[in-house]
Amino acid sequence: MKKVLALVGDYYHPSDYLKQALKMVIKNDYQLDIFSSHQEINWEGLLEYDILILATWGKINDPDDEAYWLDEYHEKKIDQFLAEGGKLFLVHSGTASYPKDGLFREIAGGHFIQHPEEHPEITIKAAADNFLTRGITDFKITDEQYFMDVDPEVEVFLKAESDQFGESTAGWTKDYKKGKVIVLTPGHTLEVFEEEMMQKLINNILEV
């Protein structure tokens, strides 16, 4: 049984709905340990896990506070986790508000730039034919449309498109040392996670 460690919730994203979402999607084939504070996690034991999910931004407090929990210590622990073959899965705000010149940005292969204030109807569609998009057909959600800065060497496997704001990157993957990094940008509400194709995407990501 694979072991999954998830850190969820931040200033804009209550941990309760994210905990509910992950418990709904991640089934009995996995041991799922979910935390809503980085201080609750034994980072020295990170290598005991197969998958690390970050569905939280890199800051400690509100948007005006520049203090980051995702500091050099945590960056190095994540780097070591990937060097040993672990999988890092960044969901929605897991791409946001961390130092852009730090190790984590290098690991992630991209970062959040902005999203329009309006939550449009977005069509999510596969941008690559691989295991991650296996069985995925186009689907519609109402969500924050994230616009990302993405490194050219990553493999984009998912796109998002709305009538109001055009096309954006919704998912990418990259190899990092012996591990793998996978990013999925939708996920601002529980309703997004209730979509069948969203659940299938997440399960594909966990299995890859």
Your description of this structure?
Helix content is 22%, strand content 32%. The protein has 5 helices and 11 strands, in the order E-H-E-E-H-E-H-E-E-E-E-E-E-E-H-H. The strands form 2 sheets. It has a 9-stranded mixed β-sheet with strand order 2-1-3-4-11-10-9-6-7. Strands 5-8 form a two-stranded antiparallel sheet. The protein has 208 residues and is of the alpha/beta class. 38% of the residues are buried. The chain has one domain: Rossmann fold. InterPro entries: Class_I_gatase-like, ThuA-like. It comes from Halanaerobium saccharolyticum. Residues 20-204 form the ThuA-like domain.
Descriptive labels:
11 strands, ThuA-like, alpha/beta, Class_I_gatase-like, Trehalose utilization protein, two-stranded antiparallel ribbon, 208 residues, Rossmann fold, globular
Tally of individual helices: 5
Query: What is the radius of gyration?
Result: 16 Å
Distance between the termini: 14 Å
Number of strands: 11
Number of domain modules: 1
Strand content: 25-35%
CATH class: Alpha Beta
Please bin the fraction of helical residues. Answer: 10-25%
> What multimeric state do the chains show?
single chain
What's the short story on this structure?
The chain is of the alpha/beta class and 208 residues long.
Q: Any chance you could write out the topology, listing elements then pairs?
A:
Layout: E1 2-8, H1 15-25, E2 30-35, E3 51-55, H2 72-83, E4 87-91, H3 103-108, E5 110-114, E6 121-126, E7 139-142, E8 147-150, E9 155-162, E10 166-176, E11 179-184, H4 190-194, H5 196-207
Parallel strand pairs: 1-2, 1-3, 3-4, 4-11
Antiparallel strand pairs: 5-8, 6-7, 6-9, 9-10, 10-11
